[in-house]
Structure formats: C-alpha cells, structure tokens
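Record type: monomer structure entry
Structure origin: computed from sequence
Chain ID: A
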Amino acid sequence: MRRISFNKTLDLIENASLHELGQIANSIRFEMHPDDTVTYVSDRNINYTNICVSGCLFCAFYARDENTGWILSESEIHEKIAEAQNAGATQILLQGGLNPSLKIEFHEEMIRSIKKKFKIHLHAFSPPEIVHIANISGISTLDVLNRLIDAGMDSIPGGGAEILVDDIRKKVSPNKCSSDEWLDIMREAHSLGLKTTATMMFGIGENNRQRIEHLQKIRDLQDETGGFTAFIAWTFQPSNTALSEMESPGGIEYLRMLAVSRIFLDNVENIQASWVTQGEKIGQIALFFGANDMGGTMMEENVVRAAGCEINLTETRLVEIIKRAGFVPKKRNTLYEILE
C-alpha cells in the first residue's frame, strides 16, 4: 500500500464522491484484513468522577465541584465491574474528569483495589487525566505513568484528543492539555510498553485541513513508536452543551471522515466504527468504509448520553448487526487478540 500525502488526502476529502472514498477505504481495509472478520470487545465504561475543572464547551457531562458532582465509592466501582464481568466483559474503560481533589494516591489505590478483586483489563486514564494528575500531585507525567502501571493499569484510551490543533483546542477546551502534551503522554506510554488507542472527535469548528493535520500527528507518532492499536473517530454531539447551537456532522460526513482515516493511517492496523454516535445502520455501513472493528458493547456510557445521544447494544445485538452486514463477528480483547 502506497502512503498518501497530506495534500492528496485533503483533495480527497474535499472533492471525492462518497462512493469513491468508500471504495478506496474498503479496498485498503481488505488489504490489511483479508478475511470477513469484524472484531468487537465486551466492555463497560466507568466514570469514577464527573467533577472536572476543564470546562470543555462540548461537554454536557461534567460538574464543576462536589456540590453538584460525585466520586464513586470503591464498593460502587466494584459492583459495576462485577456486573460487567457477569455479562461477559473483559475490559473496563475507567475514566473521570479533571478532579482537583484526586491526586496520584487516589488513582493508585483505586486500581490496586480493583486488581486485588478482579482479573480484568483496565483501559484507564486518558492523556488529559495523566497531565492533570501530574500537575496536582507535583510529579512528572512519566512518574504518574510508572506508578499507575505498578498499580495495575494495563493500557490507555485515546480520549481527550478531540482535534489535535491548538487553535481549535483553545476555543473549545482552553483548560485541557495541549496537542503536544497529548502526544507526549502517548509517546511516554508507548516507551513504557503500554498500548493505547488514538481518537478524534470532529465537528467542533475545525476545517478539513485541520482534520488531516490531526491524522498527520497520529501517523507520525505511530511511525515513531508503533504503540497505537486502533483509531476511533466520532462526531460531536451538541445537545445540552455550551455549543448546542452548532450542528452535528451527519452520517455522510462521518462516513467520509472514517474512509479518509482508513486511507491516511496506513500504519494503524484497526479502524473502529462509532455506532454509539451514529446508530446501528451507519455502524453497519461503516464496515464498508474502512472499519474492521465494531468497538465495544459499552455496557455503560455516560458522556455521549449526557449530550442527548443514547444508543445501547447488548453483546448479542452487536453480534447480530455484524452478521446482518455480511461479516463474521469475533470477540477480542483490548489488544485485539481474538478470544473466540
């Protein structure tokens, strides 16, 4: 597969037809994954706190302080994990807000208590959380990562990337880590042997050039470290946010961006479909626009739901919609190893 340039990709996203983009992306998908397998993971999202000082304009979930927010107790977290495991989950996506009262010791204790009781993969703490924990704890981000790994953290999700262009970030999330800081955390994580995912949330005022710039930064870091297991893109959901007057990108724009992601990210093996924001039907169509993975069952999802997008799928239903699209569903773990 020949590497595509920035300018050629920009030309594609602005001028190619939907059919052409899908055809190219689907061809690359089958070049990288020759069979009809579509993978998925059984998981649960657990937000251990919703208190966050980031104040992102696109977020409908956060609370500014303990008067309106909460921190889950150890027993509440354990109850959620037990329920997830009983439903077949192999992964817990553990994320919270940028809570000013929760230093590194809290996170270490939370992980250790989970690992002591459960044998489950912890896909935990996005780069903005790592930066925040380091800042309020008075230690380096590398120290944070090492201490969380020692406690039992297994991998890092790619949340908080949004668009990795600071002109956009300063407008919609001025208190969150910069693009370079996000990339630096991922670089450090990869250097320590952690696998991570990369993400994009688009539709927050960026243009096509800035979207490709985001992909370029992911591709460049992947060339350097090889630590990204997958790329996941989804659309901004405006309901109940400070940007509620903005219009969310529709299904066609999502499919165009998904296809371009598959075409451009030649060194990222897996592209995930976003049924959570797009629904079942677009999720199925995404499998013909470059996606080879259907993501997680997401037994509990709070952030996108707070923005008015509530779509739930059981593992049985997720398997069914993959089959109905003409593919063979296979359950995987966080590292994309087939389980059954």
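Annotation 1: The chain has 13 helices and ten strands.
Annotation 2: Strands lie at 37-41, 43-47, 91-95, 121-124, 155-156, 195-202, 228-235, 270-272, 293-296, 328-331.
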